[in-house]
């Protein structure tokens, strides 16, 4: 990336239509070096269109974007030389072996033949692909082709990496390995733009999240900021004896100041609260000496799933 070029990725008022369909409407985003931005949204929200514009595969109708300090329209060739891309579908040549695919990518990035072979061997080892490295790629399973594609996106050690739903089709171990690799890359200064349908993946990897729906940004912030934005925690307390349920329900309502819902079948009382840990402590103190025995308590914090559903349903109703 050029020194002093600012954010690794910067987009301002990006808009794109396909006929009468509005794919993007004035989208802004920034990704700093050594950080991960997760771009979330339902199918058709505009995530892939954003990635296609930023990787020079599609031109915007209006707006401006820079990647690695280069304009995606006027300096497209310099952008392409500065990025790695793993798209939704594995871009692997089935006639070549896995090793040959990686060497070819290295040569396209102007590595010497020796360096391309060395880099290919390194990535084959990293992605646990050595046993199949010299088999034609058309014989690979979908998950193996995906791993070769991900390895190819890293051949050039680009300062900016686009991962468009990178772990689709991967087994849990391969997903975990990729997450560790992303951590390592980010620690060395790589900027990553990630789109994913797996919200645990965004929660695990992202420094910042942008949620898009119907081509517009509907929310942005850190994972924790977004979780806090949608409301209270839920505190559930289980009693040992059913006849104690009403007493505990009243205590939670009185102390917490919110409605407490009793479930006789589960012997649970649940309430929403902005400070679940404090309420739980005060409820326990309030029951001290009453002889009431609690079988357990659970504090449920909002998840990114809750955020996603709340924001996209809200956006869809407008």
From TrEMBL:
SMART domains: AAA (SM00382)
Pfam family, one: ABC_tran
Compartments (UniProt record): Cell membrane
Main location: membrane
Record keywords, A-Z: Antibiotic resistance, ATP-binding, Cell membrane, Membrane, Nucleotide-binding, Translocase, Transport
Topological type in the membrane: Peripheral membrane protein
InterPro entries: AAA+_ATPase, ABC_transporter-like_ATP-bd, ABC_transporter_ATP-binding, DrrA, P-loop_NTPase
GO MF term list: ATP binding
Domain ABC transporter span(s) in chain numbering: 9-239
Family under the similarity heading: Belongs to the ABC transporter superfamily. Drug exporter-1 (DrugE1) (TC 3.A.1.105) family.
NCBIfam families for this protein: drrA
Protein name: ATP-binding cassette domain-containing protein
Organism lineage: Bacteria, Bacillati, Actinomycetota, Actinomycetes, Kitasatosporales
């Amino acid at each position: 990336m050029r020194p002093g070029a600012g954010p690794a990725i910067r987009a301002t008022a990006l808009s794109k239509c396909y006929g009468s369909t509005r794919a993007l409407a004035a989208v802004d985003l920034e990704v700093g070096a050594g950080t991960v931005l997760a771009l979330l949204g339902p199918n058709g929200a505009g995530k892939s269109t954003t990635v296609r514009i930023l990787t020079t595969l599609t031109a915007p109708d209006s707006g401006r974007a820079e990647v690695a300090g280069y304009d995606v329209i006027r300096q497209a060739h310099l952008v392409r030389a500065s990025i790695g891309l793993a798209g939704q579908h594995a871009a692997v040549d089935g006639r070549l072996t896995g090793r040959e695919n990686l060497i070819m990518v290295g040569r396209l990035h102007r590595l010497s033949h020796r360096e391309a072979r060395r880099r290919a061997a390194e990535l084959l080892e990293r992605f646990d692909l050595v046993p199949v490295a010299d088999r034609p790629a058309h014989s690979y399973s979908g998950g193996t082709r995906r791993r070769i594609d991900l390895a190819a996106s890293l051949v050039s050690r680009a300062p900016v990496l686009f991962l468009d739903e990178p772990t689709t089709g991967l087994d849990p171990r391969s997903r975990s390995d990729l997450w560790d690799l992303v951590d390592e890359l980010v620690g060395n200064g790589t900027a990553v733009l990630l789109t994913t349908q797996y919200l645990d993946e965004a929660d695990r990897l992202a420094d910042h999240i942008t949620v898009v729906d119907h081509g517009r940004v509907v929310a942005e912030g850190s994972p924790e900021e977004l979780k806090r934005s949608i409301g209270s925690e839920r505190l559930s307390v289980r009693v040992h004896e059913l006849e104690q349920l009403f007493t505990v329900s009243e205590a939670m309502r009185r102390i917490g100041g919110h409605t407490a819902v009793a479930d006789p079948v589960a012997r649970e009382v649940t309430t929403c609260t902005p400070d679940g840990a404090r309420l739980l402590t005060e409820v326990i103190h309030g029951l001290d000496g009453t002889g009431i025995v609690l079988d357990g308590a659970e504090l449920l914090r909002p998840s990114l799933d809750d955020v996603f559903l709340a924001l996209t349903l809200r956006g869809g109703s407008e």
